[in-house]
Amino acid sequence: MKIVSVVGARPNFVKMAPVHKALVGSGIEHMIVHTGQHYDYEMSDVFFSDFGLPKPDIYLDVGSGSSCFQIGEIIKRLENTLIWANADLVLVYGDTNSTLAGAICSDKCKIKLGHVEAGLRSYDSAMPEENNRIMTDHLSDYLFAPTRNAVTNLRNEKITGRVFYTGDLSVEIINRIKVISKQSKILDTLDLKSRSYLLLTMHRAENTNLREYFIQLLKAFESLGDNTIVFPIHPRTKKMFKTFGLLDRLLKCSNVKLLLPSGYIDFIALLQNASKVVTDSGGIQKEAYLLKIPCITMRNNTEWVETMKGRWNVLTGVNSKNIVNAIRSPSPTSQYNKSVFGSGRTSKVIYELISSINTTNKKGK
After folding, report:
1. Which residues are tagged catalytic?
2. DSSP secondary structure code for residue 106 in this structure
3. Do the domains 2-168+343-356 and 181-341 sit in the same CATH topology, yes or no?
């Protein structure tokens, strides 16, 4: 059996790592195609090295651009690779542009498709990721759902592919990385003590395209003058601070420590030692929950509804008063249920399912 994984951004690399090890460890040929969606290929190398992954077999070098540009370029460049590879199955992960492009190309090349992390829904059609995952799910032959709620979503949509409950890969990833991250020197480098700071990330297009949201974020920083805020700033976010003429105001916030985006191990070290995390990332909401770090999500909805029980995750939108109130509220102490994300053997479950299903017949053949 030959399997091709199509990846292109941080969330894809993270999810693929344990699947790769499970497949290769069982003798399955696994080809990694890196689309180059990530804005900086050198930075993406950090994630490959953090997870002990081999260099990608194919690099498509698509680069940054609009969603339409990226998806179109990936499909054009991926088609010949998939035809040449003669794969039995294409795997895509999560909800990035690379995910959707891989799904469309697989469908048009008549190759069966598996979607890892299928069935998540925020029910916000303005979110590019929501549309990516819905379309990918409806093109997929095999849907590997991380939660029972995801399975229910797929059943309700009458998905035609085969749906499997697998648990979430993040359980085994976090179990491994939180041990390794103890060797990280990032806290020493930044002169930080555990639980002495807030961690913040913001990168989603819907949050970084409006000047008012940047003003709201700055007001929150200024209201939290006594709190140290560690801010690994995404290149898009930094660019928009400049575009909106607000970078100088950000630099005047002496309580904010600006960092370049971190490798995964260093980031998990920062996350598991933070008092709380403020983010608009879907993945970080889940990672924070697994590490029992209270999360404040700068969105009005979430696909990870499991994290909201017991107020482990609070939705604030990009509103300075709501963010500050959530930060100052007492941390949750109960109603925590790690098992909602599975037992920590998801990569093995996915391997066993792939091994048991008939992937050798191409679509339409």
Report:
1. 203
2. H
3. yes
